[in-house]
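All the exercises in this workshop are built on plain-text protein records. A record pairs a protein's sequence with a compact description of its fold. The structure tokens are whole numbers drawn from a learned vocabulary of backbone shapes. Once this layout is familiar, the rest of the handout is easier to follow. An example says more than a description, so a record of this kind follows.
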Amino acid sequence: MADQRVGVYAGTFDPVTNGHMDIITRAATHMVDKLIVAVAINPGKGPIFTVEERVAMVQEEISACNFGRAVQVDVQPFSSLLTDFAEVNGASMLIRGLRAVSDFEYEFQMASMNSYLKPHIETAFLMASDRNQFISSRLVKEICFLDGDIDQFVSPRVAKLLTAKKPKS
């Protein structure tokens, strides 16, 4: 459809958390007709999952979702500038999640730079839900690797995958 609203939600998703899924669900339900979940190929962040594993993980989580309306949600890896990726995929909106005030300064700078690069692509921020404000992939990995309980932060599928990546002592 010509007037389809396409949005991109990008991240490393190493691993995908309940917080990520909350943003994906809310964006797909309320904001766009098509959502592309863009999995960053970012070796500098030192992900523990390969990009292929992260794409598959996000796809599996999305397949378990009921968005309550007809919406297309695709998962794609990317390694270019986010604004270039969005433009090539016909997106007019970048979706960003905010957990806390500490996220705002970085996200504000990124949104400003993205607007400078591609003024026709808007950035929309979604505040994390109360129950997800403190969740980060980095902390989930740390809790898991120190034998803590991660069940309230990720799905059982992701918990199993993450536990399998736990370093052997």
Remarks:
- Residues 99 and 149 are 21 Å apart (CA to CA).
- The first helix runs from residue 18 to 30.
